[in-house]
Amino acid sequence: MRPLMLHGHERSITQIKYNKDGDLLFSSAKDSSPGVWYSVNGERLGTYDGHTGVVWSLDVKWDTTQLLTGAGDNRLIQWDVETGKQLAELNNQTSVRTCQFSYSGTLALYSTDCQMGLPSEIIVIDCRDPSQIEQDKPSLRIPISAPNPKVTSILWGTLDEKIISGHENGDIVVWDFRTGKNITMVSEHSQQINDMQLSKDGTMFITASKDCTAKLFDTDSVDLMKTYKTERPVNSAALSPIHDHVVLGGGQEAMEVTTTSARVGKFDARFFHLVFEEEFGRVKGHFGPINSLAFHPDGKSYSSGGEDGYVRVHEFDQSYFDFRFDY
Fold first, then answer.
1. Of 9-23, 43-57, 134-148, 254-268, minimum mean pLDDT range
2. Residues in a beta bridge with 271
3. Peptide bond connecting 3 to the previous residue in cis, omega within 30 degrees of 0
4. Phi-psi label, residue 42: left if phi above 0, alpha if psi -120 to 50, beta otherwise
5. How would you class 151 by CB atoms within 10 Å of its CB: exposed for 0-12, middle for 13-18, buried for 19 or more?
6. Which CA distances in Å does 37 have to 12, 22, 30, 50?
């Protein structure tokens, strides 16, 4: 089947995310208006207007009632998904790089950049307590002071008891949510971690790095389990909810793109077997690096957002489901 081409952004896509039911697809880009689409037919529902800078990340609550967006205008905004109204706004001293709702949707986790001599910070607020937002008194604030590198991606750990952060130098750090203390740190990547995504059951997570690899880790122990190697920086990686499959997307830096052709296969989405680390398929399409990938919650389709400003929604053919890996 031909993919759905969703073109509602003027600039590069920064992140795409399905809601828990999979009927809606949210997208953010380097323009200032995150959008929402029907995933089944690509119809655009609307945009969330209020930011004045690059929207770096977004997350949607489990019941699809609220949306979080973090942007380069130093603001984290909480939206009503249905009406597009702003419910709350948090002003920070530097750009908001990542944001994520907790499993229950009551806590919001986000991180800021280190700029102008200010440290990168990991901050948690309780969405049920308006005073935390109004008086800028979060439940937890962890400063990542120099020489520690800034946070580039973030996840909630098991039962929302831990916070897992990926950093600019390739470190993965696990923090205790109760105390804000550093529990463990692993340095399996040699360069920046661009993306981290949990598996459907939350027992594993996959990282995508500028060092041309994606790696699979155990969520509880942060033990490295698998490594998927490519020849180009990996910007995003996602785990299939129904098969032992991993999809990686990336490409060389946007600055170098003009010197190459899309036909060389530098901007393909690449499918690997989760266990055997073998590549078994590629999907062409984008005219620039893929910046974000997401599997549909039912595992029957996936979406990719690229530097070209398009979101492509790909339905899998029957041959994908019939495919059996040769042991």
1. 254-268
2. 247, 281
3. no
4. left
5. buried
6. 17, 11, 17, 18
Residue written as token pair 């520690």: 148
- Quickly tell me which residue has 């809601």 as its tokens: 19
- Vertex 132, ends 127 and 133: CA angle to 5°? 75
Tokens representing 163 are 């916070």
User: Does residue 251 contact residue 236 with C-beta atoms inside 8 Å?
Assistant: no
For 270, other C-beta atoms within 10 Å of its C-beta total 22
| pLDDT for residue 279 | 95
Cα–Cα dist 109/159, whole Å: 14
Q: Which long-range contacts (CB under 8 A, 24 or more apart) does 134-141 make?
A: 136/90, 136/91, 139/107, 140/177, 140/180, 141/180
Q: Tens of pLDDT along 297-314?
A: 999 999 999 999 999 999
pTM: 0.94
Is 303 in contact with 293 (CB distance < 8 Å)? Answer: yes
- Residues 29-66 as b/e (b if ≥16 CB within 10 A, e otherwise) read bbbbbbbbbebeebeeeebbebbeebbbbbbbbeebeb
- The helix or strand, by DSSP H or E, that contains position 208, with its residue range, turns out to be strand 204-209
d(CA 81, CA 223): 37
Sheet-wide strand order for 234-239: 234-239, 245-250, 269-273, 279-283
Tokens 């919650």 — which residue? 297
Q: Which of 129, 160, 161, 167 is nearest to 146 (CA)?
A: 167
> 């986000």: which residue's tokens?
110
Owner of token pair 């490594």: 227
